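Researcher: Please predict.
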Amino acid sequence: MPRITPGTVVKLLIMSLLVGLVLAFLNIDPQNILQSARDGVEALMKMGVDFFGWAFKYVLIGAVVVVPIWLALFLWRYLRGKR
């Protein structure tokens, strides 16, 4: 693991200062960044819930037909194999 030296700390401070100046020039503050990240995560979660909610509805509709047919075939094979 690399060692943290005073030189590393100074480099981090200088880079932080430069990035802070650029963000301030662009009128971006940390609260906006965190808010945007939170909104992005919420939007992604909503899209996932919407998609799976949509898909779940069709899975249930299909299962009404598929599961009884599968169960009948399964029982048929099971009973034929018993004899």
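Model: Helices lie at 6-25, 30-82.
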